[in-house]
Amino acid sequence: MRYKLQEILTNVENLWLVGNQVILTNVERARRHMGNSEICSVCSGAPESILHVLRDCPAMAGLWQRLVPRRERQQFFAKSLLEWVYSNLITTPEQGNEGWPTLFAMAIWWAWKWRCGDVFGERGLCRDRTRFVKNLAAEVTKAHLLLKAGSQVTDRVEEQIAWKNPGESWVTINTDGASHGNPGPATAAGALREGNGTWLGGFALNIGICTAPVAELWGVYYGLVIAWEGGFRRVILEVDSALVVGFLQSGVEDTHPLAFLVRLCHGFISRDWLVRVTHVYREANRLADGLAKYAFSLPLGFQHLDVCPEDVAPVLLDDVNGVTRPRLVRV
Length: 331
Description:
Nucleotidyltransferase, domain 5; 2 domains; 13 helices; 47% helix; elongated; RNA-DNA hybrid ribonuclease activity; RVT-Znf; Ribonuclease H-like superfamily; nucleic acid binding; RNase_H-like_dom_plant
Protein backbone atom coordinates (compact mmCIF):
# COMPACT_ATOMS: atom_id res chain seq x y z
CA MET A 1 0.00 0.00 0.00
CA ARG A 2 1.22 3.46 -0.87
CA TYR A 3 -0.09 4.95 2.36
CA LYS A 4 2.71 4.38 4.86
CA LEU A 5 2.23 3.06 8.39
CA GLN A 6 4.08 6.09 9.78
CA GLU A 7 1.49 8.37 8.15
CA ILE A 8 -1.31 6.42 9.83
CA LEU A 9 0.41 6.63 13.21
CA THR A 10 0.97 10.36 12.72
CA ASN A 11 -2.72 10.74 11.88
CA VAL A 12 -3.63 9.06 15.17
CA GLU A 13 -1.28 11.43 17.02
CA ASN A 14 -2.91 14.36 15.23
CA LEU A 15 -6.37 13.26 16.39
CA TRP A 16 -5.05 13.05 19.96
CA LEU A 17 -3.59 16.56 19.71
CA VAL A 18 -6.82 17.96 18.29
CA GLY A 19 -8.88 16.25 21.00
CA ASN A 20 -6.61 17.71 23.67
CA GLN A 21 -6.68 21.13 21.93
CA VAL A 22 -2.91 21.56 21.76
CA ILE A 23 -2.47 22.18 18.02
CA LEU A 24 -0.13 25.15 17.64
CA THR A 25 -2.38 27.62 15.80
CA ASN A 26 -1.92 31.40 15.82
CA VAL A 27 -4.39 31.66 18.71
CA GLU A 28 -2.31 29.22 20.74
CA ARG A 29 0.94 30.87 19.69
CA ALA A 30 -0.36 34.25 20.84
CA ARG A 31 -1.51 32.74 24.13
CA ARG A 32 2.00 31.37 24.69
CA HIS A 33 3.55 34.73 23.68
CA MET A 34 5.17 33.07 20.67
CA GLY A 35 3.43 35.35 18.15
CA ASN A 36 1.86 38.77 17.89
CA SER A 37 -1.34 38.02 15.99
CA GLU A 38 -4.19 35.54 16.37
CA ILE A 39 -5.48 36.23 12.85
CA CYS A 40 -5.47 33.47 10.25
CA SER A 41 -2.52 33.96 7.90
CA VAL A 42 -4.39 32.34 4.99
CA CYS A 43 -7.76 34.10 4.91
CA SER A 44 -7.05 37.04 7.27
CA GLY A 45 -10.72 36.91 8.18
CA ALA A 46 -10.83 35.42 11.69
CA PRO A 47 -8.68 34.26 14.60
CA GLU A 48 -6.79 31.10 13.66
CA SER A 49 -8.26 28.67 16.19
CA ILE A 50 -8.12 24.90 15.78
CA LEU A 51 -11.70 24.84 14.53
CA HIS A 52 -10.96 27.63 12.07
CA VAL A 53 -7.97 25.79 10.59
CA LEU A 54 -9.70 22.42 10.33
CA ARG A 55 -13.21 23.48 9.32
CA ASP A 56 -14.21 27.13 9.04
CA CYS A 57 -11.39 28.72 7.06
CA PRO A 58 -12.36 29.12 3.38
CA ALA A 59 -9.33 26.96 2.57
CA MET A 60 -11.15 23.98 4.15
CA ALA A 61 -14.81 25.01 4.17
CA GLY A 62 -15.09 24.36 0.43
CA LEU A 63 -13.76 20.83 0.84
CA TRP A 64 -16.26 20.07 3.60
CA GLN A 65 -19.06 21.50 1.46
CA ARG A 66 -18.24 18.88 -1.16
CA LEU A 67 -17.88 16.02 1.33
CA VAL A 68 -20.86 16.62 3.63
CA PRO A 69 -24.41 16.06 2.32
CA ARG A 70 -26.43 19.27 2.00
CA ARG A 71 -28.99 18.27 4.62
CA GLU A 72 -26.25 17.77 7.24
CA ARG A 73 -24.13 20.86 6.59
CA GLN A 74 -25.84 23.26 8.98
CA GLN A 75 -25.37 20.93 11.92
CA PHE A 76 -21.85 20.01 10.77
CA PHE A 77 -20.67 23.64 10.78
CA ALA A 78 -22.49 24.58 14.01
CA LYS A 79 -20.81 22.21 16.46
CA SER A 80 -18.08 23.08 18.94
CA LEU A 81 -14.63 21.59 18.40
CA LEU A 82 -14.83 18.52 20.62
CA GLU A 83 -18.46 17.79 19.72
CA TRP A 84 -17.54 18.12 16.05
CA VAL A 85 -14.54 15.79 16.28
CA TYR A 86 -16.11 13.10 18.44
CA SER A 87 -19.46 12.97 16.64
CA ASN A 88 -17.80 12.63 13.23
CA LEU A 89 -15.48 9.87 14.40
CA ILE A 90 -18.39 7.69 15.49
CA THR A 91 -21.13 8.50 12.95
CA THR A 92 -21.42 7.62 9.29
CA PRO A 93 -23.10 10.09 6.92
CA GLU A 94 -23.88 8.83 3.45
CA GLN A 95 -20.52 9.15 1.70
CA GLY A 96 -20.51 6.48 -0.97
CA ASN A 97 -18.20 3.55 -0.29
CA GLU A 98 -15.73 5.34 2.02
CA GLY A 99 -16.23 5.00 5.75
CA TRP A 100 -16.99 8.48 7.06
CA PRO A 101 -14.85 8.35 10.26
CA THR A 102 -11.79 7.41 8.19
CA LEU A 103 -12.57 10.06 5.57
CA PHE A 104 -13.08 12.66 8.29
CA ALA A 105 -9.80 11.74 10.00
CA MET A 106 -7.89 11.94 6.71
CA ALA A 107 -9.41 15.33 5.97
CA ILE A 108 -8.53 16.97 9.28
CA TRP A 109 -5.01 15.53 9.20
CA TRP A 110 -4.40 16.93 5.73
CA ALA A 111 -6.06 20.21 6.69
CA TRP A 112 -3.30 20.66 9.25
CA LYS A 113 -0.57 19.49 6.85
CA TRP A 114 -1.77 21.89 4.17
CA ARG A 115 -1.91 24.73 6.69
CA CYS A 116 1.67 24.05 7.80
CA GLY A 117 2.71 23.98 4.14
CA ASP A 118 1.05 27.36 3.55
CA VAL A 119 2.76 28.89 6.59
CA PHE A 120 6.23 27.47 5.95
CA GLY A 121 6.20 27.78 2.17
CA GLU A 122 6.20 24.04 1.49
CA ARG A 123 2.89 23.83 -0.31
CA GLY A 124 2.70 20.91 -2.72
CA LEU A 125 0.60 20.63 -5.84
CA CYS A 126 -2.85 19.11 -5.24
CA ARG A 127 -5.34 19.97 -7.94
CA ASP A 128 -8.33 18.20 -6.41
CA ARG A 129 -8.12 18.01 -2.63
CA THR A 130 -11.52 16.37 -2.34
CA ARG A 131 -10.56 13.47 -4.59
CA PHE A 132 -7.14 13.26 -2.93
CA VAL A 133 -8.66 12.84 0.55
CA LYS A 134 -11.26 10.37 -0.68
CA ASN A 135 -8.58 8.25 -2.34
CA LEU A 136 -6.48 8.20 0.83
CA ALA A 137 -9.48 7.19 2.94
CA ALA A 138 -10.34 4.40 0.52
CA GLU A 139 -6.73 3.20 0.56
CA VAL A 140 -6.56 3.13 4.35
CA THR A 141 -9.89 1.30 4.55
CA LYS A 142 -8.71 -1.27 2.01
CA ALA A 143 -5.44 -1.80 3.89
CA HIS A 144 -7.35 -2.29 7.13
CA LEU A 145 -9.67 -4.87 5.56
CA LEU A 146 -6.73 -6.76 4.05
CA LEU A 147 -4.92 -6.77 7.36
CA LYS A 148 -8.03 -7.94 9.16
CA ALA A 149 -8.63 -10.70 6.62
CA GLY A 150 -5.01 -11.84 6.78
CA SER A 151 -4.83 -12.00 10.54
CA GLN A 152 -4.90 -15.64 11.55
CA VAL A 153 -4.47 -15.32 15.30
CA THR A 154 -6.25 -12.73 17.42
CA ASP A 155 -6.32 -14.59 20.72
CA ARG A 156 -4.66 -13.41 23.88
CA VAL A 157 -2.78 -15.61 26.29
CA GLU A 158 -1.71 -14.97 29.83
CA GLU A 159 1.99 -14.34 30.33
CA GLN A 160 3.95 -13.73 33.49
CA ILE A 161 5.69 -10.37 33.26
CA ALA A 162 8.64 -9.30 35.40
CA TRP A 163 11.39 -6.72 35.40
CA LYS A 164 14.43 -8.08 33.57
CA ASN A 165 17.96 -7.36 34.65
CA PRO A 166 20.00 -5.56 31.99
CA GLY A 167 22.91 -7.97 31.94
CA GLU A 168 26.57 -7.49 32.66
CA SER A 169 28.04 -4.01 32.08
CA TRP A 170 24.60 -2.48 31.43
CA VAL A 171 22.26 -0.50 33.67
CA THR A 172 18.53 0.01 33.32
CA ILE A 173 16.64 3.25 33.81
CA ASN A 174 12.89 2.75 34.18
CA THR A 175 10.84 5.92 33.83
CA ASP A 176 7.17 6.78 34.02
CA GLY A 177 4.85 9.76 34.01
CA ALA A 178 1.38 10.26 35.45
CA SER A 179 -1.32 12.89 35.00
CA HIS A 180 -4.58 13.10 36.93
CA GLY A 181 -6.97 14.63 34.43
CA ASN A 182 -4.77 14.70 31.31
CA PRO A 183 -4.13 17.60 31.52
CA GLY A 184 -4.07 17.75 35.29
CA PRO A 185 -1.66 17.48 38.22
CA ALA A 186 1.27 15.49 36.89
CA THR A 187 4.46 13.79 37.99
CA ALA A 188 7.37 11.87 36.53
CA ALA A 189 9.87 9.51 38.09
CA GLY A 190 12.58 7.01 37.36
CA ALA A 191 14.85 4.39 38.90
CA LEU A 192 18.38 3.45 37.85
CA ARG A 193 19.48 -0.13 38.57
CA GLU A 194 22.33 -2.45 37.77
CA GLY A 195 22.16 -6.07 36.67
CA ASN A 196 21.26 -7.64 40.00
CA GLY A 197 18.56 -5.04 40.64
CA THR A 198 20.60 -2.94 43.06
CA TRP A 199 19.36 0.63 43.38
CA LEU A 200 21.83 3.07 41.83
CA GLY A 201 19.73 6.21 42.07
CA GLY A 202 16.43 7.68 41.11
CA PHE A 203 14.33 10.79 40.93
CA ALA A 204 10.81 12.06 41.51
CA LEU A 205 9.43 15.14 39.78
CA ASN A 206 6.25 16.96 40.77
CA ILE A 207 5.57 18.86 37.55
CA GLY A 208 2.36 20.76 38.14
CA ILE A 209 -0.29 20.73 35.41
CA CYS A 210 0.36 18.94 32.11
CA THR A 211 -0.72 16.00 29.96
CA ALA A 212 0.41 12.40 30.33
CA PRO A 213 2.74 12.39 27.27
CA VAL A 214 4.46 15.54 28.53
CA ALA A 215 4.95 13.92 31.93
CA GLU A 216 6.29 10.75 30.29
CA LEU A 217 8.80 12.73 28.24
CA TRP A 218 10.01 14.70 31.27
CA GLY A 219 10.52 11.35 32.97
CA VAL A 220 12.61 10.12 30.04
CA TYR A 221 14.64 13.33 29.97
CA TYR A 222 15.53 13.33 33.67
CA GLY A 223 16.16 9.60 33.59
CA LEU A 224 18.74 10.13 30.86
CA VAL A 225 20.22 13.05 32.81
CA ILE A 226 20.86 11.07 35.99
CA ALA A 227 22.23 8.11 34.01
CA TRP A 228 24.65 10.34 32.10
CA GLU A 229 25.72 12.32 35.15
CA GLY A 230 26.20 9.05 37.02
CA GLY A 231 28.86 8.08 34.50
CA PHE A 232 26.99 5.13 33.00
CA ARG A 233 27.62 4.64 29.29
CA ARG A 234 25.63 1.48 28.48
CA VAL A 235 22.01 2.17 29.36
CA ILE A 236 18.70 0.44 28.67
CA LEU A 237 15.83 2.93 28.87
CA GLU A 238 12.52 1.20 29.61
CA VAL A 239 9.23 3.08 29.14
CA ASP A 240 5.70 1.67 29.28
CA SER A 241 4.20 4.27 26.92
CA ALA A 242 4.24 2.98 23.34
CA LEU A 243 3.43 6.50 22.13
CA VAL A 244 6.51 8.00 23.78
CA VAL A 245 8.75 5.15 22.61
CA GLY A 246 7.49 5.87 19.09
CA PHE A 247 8.40 9.54 19.50
CA LEU A 248 11.91 8.61 20.64
CA GLN A 249 12.52 6.03 17.93
CA SER A 250 10.90 7.77 14.96
CA GLY A 251 11.02 11.43 15.95
CA VAL A 252 8.31 14.03 15.35
CA GLU A 253 7.87 16.94 12.99
CA ASP A 254 9.17 20.35 14.07
CA THR A 255 5.59 21.63 14.24
CA HIS A 256 4.57 18.94 16.74
CA PRO A 257 3.66 20.45 20.15
CA LEU A 258 5.98 17.97 21.87
CA ALA A 259 8.89 18.52 19.47
CA PHE A 260 10.89 20.54 22.02
CA LEU A 261 10.82 17.78 24.63
CA VAL A 262 11.52 15.05 22.09
CA ARG A 263 14.55 17.01 20.86
CA LEU A 264 15.78 17.40 24.45
CA CYS A 265 15.67 13.63 24.88
CA HIS A 266 17.30 13.02 21.50
CA GLY A 267 20.05 15.43 22.51
CA PHE A 268 21.01 13.13 25.36
CA ILE A 269 20.48 9.89 23.46
CA SER A 270 22.84 11.07 20.69
CA ARG A 271 25.75 11.66 23.08
CA ASP A 272 28.79 9.40 23.20
CA TRP A 273 27.17 6.42 24.89
CA LEU A 274 24.92 3.45 24.12
CA VAL A 275 21.22 3.88 24.89
CA ARG A 276 18.63 1.26 24.02
CA VAL A 277 15.06 2.60 24.10
CA THR A 278 12.64 -0.22 24.90
CA HIS A 279 8.90 -0.46 25.41
CA VAL A 280 7.89 -2.63 28.36
CA TYR A 281 4.57 -3.60 29.86
CA ARG A 282 3.43 -1.73 32.95
CA GLU A 283 3.88 -4.91 34.99
CA ALA A 284 7.63 -4.66 34.29
CA ASN A 285 7.67 -0.95 35.13
CA ARG A 286 6.02 -1.08 38.54
CA LEU A 287 8.90 0.61 40.36
CA ALA A 288 8.83 3.72 38.15
CA ASP A 289 5.03 3.72 38.32
CA GLY A 290 5.15 3.61 42.11
CA LEU A 291 7.70 6.42 42.21
CA ALA A 292 5.49 8.57 39.98
CA LYS A 293 2.60 8.06 42.40
CA TYR A 294 4.91 8.81 45.31
CA ALA A 295 5.94 12.09 43.64
CA PHE A 296 2.40 13.46 44.08
CA SER A 297 3.14 13.69 47.81
CA LEU A 298 6.24 15.83 47.24
CA PRO A 299 6.58 19.60 46.73
CA LEU A 300 6.72 20.94 43.19
CA GLY A 301 10.09 20.39 41.57
CA PHE A 302 12.81 17.78 41.16
CA GLN A 303 13.94 15.44 43.92
CA HIS A 304 17.05 13.28 43.48
CA LEU A 305 16.65 9.98 45.31
CA ASP A 306 19.91 8.48 46.53
CA VAL A 307 17.96 5.83 48.45
CA CYS A 308 14.83 4.00 47.38
CA PRO A 309 11.82 5.51 49.23
CA GLU A 310 10.11 3.22 51.71
CA ASP A 311 6.83 3.60 49.82
CA VAL A 312 8.19 1.60 46.88
CA ALA A 313 10.83 -0.55 48.61
CA PRO A 314 8.61 -3.68 48.41
CA VAL A 315 8.35 -3.26 44.63
CA LEU A 316 12.13 -2.96 44.35
CA LEU A 317 12.48 -6.18 46.35
CA ASP A 318 9.94 -7.93 44.11
CA ASP A 319 11.97 -6.97 41.04
CA VAL A 320 15.20 -8.19 42.61
CA ASN A 321 13.54 -11.53 43.39
CA GLY A 322 12.02 -11.87 39.92
CA VAL A 323 8.39 -11.70 41.09
CA THR A 324 6.02 -11.80 38.11
CA ARG A 325 2.59 -10.37 37.40
CA PRO A 326 0.07 -11.87 34.93
CA ARG A 327 -0.92 -10.03 31.76
CA LEU A 328 -3.00 -11.01 28.74
CA VAL A 329 -0.93 -10.44 25.59
CA ARG A 330 -1.62 -10.99 21.91
CA VAL A 331 -0.19 -14.08 20.26
